[in-house]
Amino acid sequence: MFNTFKALSDPTRMKILELLRKENMTAGEIADHFHMTKPSISHHLSILNQADLIFAEKKGQFIHYSLNTTMIQEIMYWALKFNKE
After folding, report:
1. Can you tell which superkingdom this protein's organism belongs to (predicted)?
2. Contact, 13 vs 34, CB < 8 A?
3. What is the 3-state secondary structure (H, E, C) of 11-48?
4. How many CA atoms lie within 13 A of 46 on its CB side?
5. At 71, is the secondary structure helix, strand, or coil?
6. What angle do CA 54, 13, 74 make, to 5 degrees?
7. 3-state secondary structure of 49
8. Parallel, antiparallel, or unpaired: how do β-strands 25-26 and 54-59 relate?
9. For residues 82 and 7, what is the distance between their CA atoms, to the nearest angstrom?
């Protein structure tokens, strides 16, 4: 769970998750939304992937990234357990 919170603690990674919530994208398409190098975006994608927050699927010569909604639901369920009744 530590990797998950580390991944969620960065504003760039949160923005990437917001983009993937709307549609699956390649690294290049994601990079178009930021003013940083493509290797920096790849680093952020790697952290999100290691935390199981996104899926990476190779299609031809491109990798398509998508949101792992199951993991997002698990995080929400875990956080809601702290809500007082």
Report:
1. Bacteria
2. no
3. HHHHHHHHHHHHCCEEHHHHHCCCCCCHHHHHHHHHHH
4. 6
5. helix
6. 45
7. helix
8. unpaired
9. 21
| Closest listed residue to residue 67, CA positions, set 84, 49, 80 | 49
pLDDT tens digit sequence for 2-57:
789 899 999 999 999 999 999 999 999 999 999 999 999 999 999 999 999 999 99
What's the rounded Cα separation, in Å, for the pair 18 and 62?
21
Side chain identity at residue 40, one-letter code? S
Q: How far apart, in Å, are the Cα atoms of 11 and each of 15, 53, 83?
A: 6, 15, 25
